[in-house]
Each structure stands twice: as structure tokens, then as C-alpha cells.
Design goal:
The protein contains 12 helices and 10 strands. It is of the alpha+beta class. It has 2 domains: about 130 residues, no CATH class; about 170 residues, Glutaredoxin, CATH 3.40.30. A hairpin with a 6-residue loop joins β7 and β8.
Length: about 325
């Protein structure tokens, strides 16, 4: 009786080798090294001082993209920081729990084998960091289109309102007569669009001269009147270093606020599963007569027009 040899194909050989890698301690050790180096990378990117040169620019760009970092104030979304730091920890725990015996055996019997695994993990994280550096230094942007002031200009009536600001003071539309007013709609616990809009306003205020700032008022209507308490609105005012004499975070009764937002065509809907409020991102500029002169979105092009639109209205002569 003859024994027939069993031929193993390339797919079977690959599957066999892959199963050996997974069942041994090499894969688990490599994965743990990747997570450790990733955590180290995130900690450096989060807490290392921003200096000058290419590295400083990379650190600043990383924090702006990932944590909504505000270079002028040093403010960051610390919830995002905590999430990025904490995310790998459960995965590392799971890997160690499943492969702890193999990891211990590798460390006790073949300790030198850990060196190339750690080196490969460090190389992988380094390549990831280099890739992020490339993303943070894109090609020079195309020439910005000029602000079409005359084309976009309107003179629509602004709905009247009587609401309460973060200091408990009653504020009406008539209070802004004779001043240029920048209007938006946000809510205090927003972690996505609203911080970008508030940063945009902060940037505009920082770019204006003191004389120009003195002629501008800012109004933020609450998108979540049920939850935007006086304390939360004060916290937002302070977080972005807004002057309470210039910045008014207004709220009122839910029916009253929702009616006003509808009149301004500010779309919003709440996700029933997450509770997150999805909304349009608009900047509305009022001229000195309290009329809606411009409506600009948060898009890259229109956001770049915001400072020009403000200065266009500030330069107009009072009637």
C-alpha cells in the first residue's frame, strides 16, 4: 500500500503561516509595541511646546486639525484629546488578555526577538507621523477669489427679537442700530461645527483694528434653548475670550428661539440616537440699519470672505 503525498497550495501555505503568526507571541508583541509608540506619539503631539520651524508648524497644524486648537489662546478641545489618548488602551488590554501566555513565553525564551518587532512598530508609527506631516503641508492653495460684495449684497429685514444674553441682560434688535453686527447660531455643548464657527469669529475680531472692533457687535443665537443655560453661555464667552460688552450669546423660550431660527432659515435636526444637533453653519451680517446684508457659510471660500465682508460694512458711511 502506497502513501500519496498531499500537495499544499500557496493559499493553504499562507493561511498556515498566518495562523502560526497569530497563535504565537510575535504578532501580539508587535501590536502592543505599535500601540505604545502611538500613545507616545500622541502625547508628544499634544503636550510638546510649539517652537519655530517645520516641527513647530507640524505640531500646530496637528492640534488645529485634531483638537480645534486656537493658536492665540492655547485652547483645545480636551475631550478630543482624552478620546485620542484613551482609545488604544482597551485594544491593548484585549491583546494582552488573549495572548498573555505567548507574550510571556516570547519574553522569557526569545527576548532578542522583541527588538526587531519593536523596531518594525516604531518604523510603522514613524511612517504614519511622516504621512501626517505631508498632509499638514499641502500644495500652495489656488489664488483666492475676490469677495463679490455687490453681487451678494442684500437688504433683507432682520426678524425682531427680545432675548437674554449670558449676563442675564435683555437684548433686542434695536440695541444694534447704528452698528455692524455679526450674527450666528451655535449651542454650548457642540463639539463639531460650533467651535469652528466661534473660532472664525475670534479670528475676525483679532484681525480687526481696535477702532474697527469698537464698531462691531457679535450675536450668537442658541440652537439648543432647552440646554444652553446662563452658566454654559458664560463659559463659551470666557473660553473664546469674547468681551461681554461686544459678544451676546442669546437665549429665550424654546418656542420663541425656534421661531426666530426658522425665520432666519437656519436648518437643524437632532439625531434621535446620539442626541447630537446637526445644523447649518451660517454667518449673517447686518448693516447699520439692522438689515441682513450678507449670508456666508462655513465653507473655506466664504469663511475667507468673512473679514472682508465685515470691513466692507464697517467702511460704509452711516445714513
Amino acid at each position: 500500500m502506497t502513501t500519496q503525498a498531499i500537495t499544499v497550495g500557496p493559499v493553504e501555505r499562507f493561511a498556515l503561516r498566518f495562523s502560526r503568526i497569530l497563535s504565537g507571541g510575535s504578532f501580539a508583541t508587535f501590536a502592543l509595541c505599535v500601540l505604545v509608540f502611538y500613545e507616545t506619539f500622541v502625547m508628544i503631539m499634544t503636550f510638546a511646546p510649539i517652537g519655530s520651524g517645520a516641527m513647530g508648524g507640524f505640531l500646530e497644524e496637528f492640534r488645529i486639525r485634531c483638537f480645534q486648537y486656537e493658536p492665540k489662546t492655547g485652547w483645545m478641545q480636551w475631550t478630543s484629546v482624552a478620546t485620542m489618548i484613551a482609545e488604544p488602551l482597551p485594544l491593548a488590554g484585549i491583546i494582552y488578555f488573549i495572548w498573555r501566555a505567548q507574550i510571556r513565553e516570547l519574553w522569557q525564551t526569545r527576548r532578542r526577538a522583541v527588538i526587531p518587532l519593536a523596531g518594525g512598530a516604531l518604523l510603522l508609527v514613524g511612517l504614519l507621523g511622516a504621512g501626517l506631516a505631508g498632509v499638514g503641508n499641502p500644495e500652495p492653495p489656488q489664488k483666492e477669489l475676490p469677495f463679490p460684495a455687490d453681487t451678494l449684497r442684500s437688504a433683507l429685514p432682520m426678524p425682531a427679537f427680545k432675548l437674554t444674553n449670558q449676563d442675564g441682560q435683555t437684548v433686542t434688535l434695536a440695541d444694534f442700530k447704528g452698528r455692524v453686527t455679526l450674527v450666528t447660531a451655535v449651542y454650548a455643548t457642540c463639539t463639531t461645527t460650533c467651535p469652528m464657527m466661534l473660532k472664525g469669529i475670534r479670528t475676525v475680531l483679532d484681525e480687526l483694528t481696535p477702532a474697527e472692533r469698537a464698531k462691531l457687535s457679535v450675536v450668537a443665537f442658541s440652537l439648543s434653548p432647552e440646554t444652553d443655560t446662563k452658566e454654559l453661555r458664560t463659559m463659551i464667552t470666557q473660553a473664546y475670550h469674547f468681551d461681554s460688552a461686544q459678544f451676546n450669546f442669546l437665549n429665550g423660550q424654546p418656542d420663541e428661539m425656534n421661531a426666530l431660527l426658522n425665520q432666519l432659515n437656519i436648518a437643524r435636526t437632532r439625531d434621535p440616537k446620539t442626541g447630537e444637533l446637526v445644523h447649518s453653519a451660517m454667518f449673517i451680517l447686518l448693516d447699520r440699519e439692522g438689515r441682513i446684508a450678507y449670508r456666508l457659510s462655513l465653507s473655506q471660500r466664504e469663511s475667507s470672505w468673512l473679514i472682508t465682508a465685515v470691513r466692507t460694512l464697517l467702511a460704509e458711511k452711516s445714513p
